[in-house]
Amino acid sequence: MSTSNNAPRLRIYRSMNAAPAKTIVFGAGGFVGRHLLAAYRRSDPSAVGTARTSAAGLAAFDFADPSLSRLDGAEQGAEYAVIAAAMTNIGRCEQDPQGAYVTNVVGPLALAEQLHARRITPIVFSSDYVFDGITGSYGDGAALRPCNVYGRTKAELEHRLPEVCGDDYLVIRLSKVFGLRRGDKTLFDEMAARFAQGLPVRAAIDQVFCPAWIDDVVHAVLELQRIGARGTYNVCSSEASSRRDLAVRLAAAMHVSADLVEPISLDDLGESFVRPKRTSMVCNKLWNILPAGFRSLESCLQDIASQYLVRKEVA
Asked: Which of these, 111, 116, 185, 206, has the minimum number of CB atoms within 10 Å of its CB?
């Protein structure tokens, strides 16, 4: 892949009320991609989304052969392209490192190079797993020291993206992203569903991170596009918590016993690979743009709890 000699292409800032720039979403079948596509389609119903196999409203696009020609010109007029497709299951990445490398590094870089040639800015998602998890509180420019296959693929993608795009790219580095709809099977919903059945929740006391509500993530991405931001941004809550603490707080919000929370260590999982333990991130660059920050975790916990509370009949 060749390095571009073009100077960074600056874009005129859009007004606060302007519709989002025309954007393609690769990986719209996933949780983050699906929500982003829905946001773009609110102002542009023709916005293109792709998935590994064709589905309702989504075109087929395989990162093992990521040719833009498969879109039959649907990319014309686009200013941005979100690359949200990835192999994110940590265990699967360990079992199939070559597949993880193709999906998380080779495919996205090949696609980013094609997008750059068409003057379309790629928006690429990375992860707090690019850090070793020893200290926590990692800034936007902190050194990348991944400790497992998934983290290494994301770190390499971050390192090599400038080779194919120069300065014309946006990296969104995420922590755990959750929804607030009953049954969405994300972080708090999974806990709440077990609590509602009186079942225990195993939660690590030494896994400390900054989870973020999907609507806040979508808002942050749209705002970064609006101002023409480039480079790498941590995008997560400003509240660092252990998984155990979050589970205890959710149990309290649901009025169930904290005894249902079983504290464990990540070491107790007996996995053959290492998970970084303290991956909290600091979003200094983002908070300069969004000074109000994200919705509080307490408010989010109360929201999901209210959907599971059993109201007693009034006699």
From this structure: 185
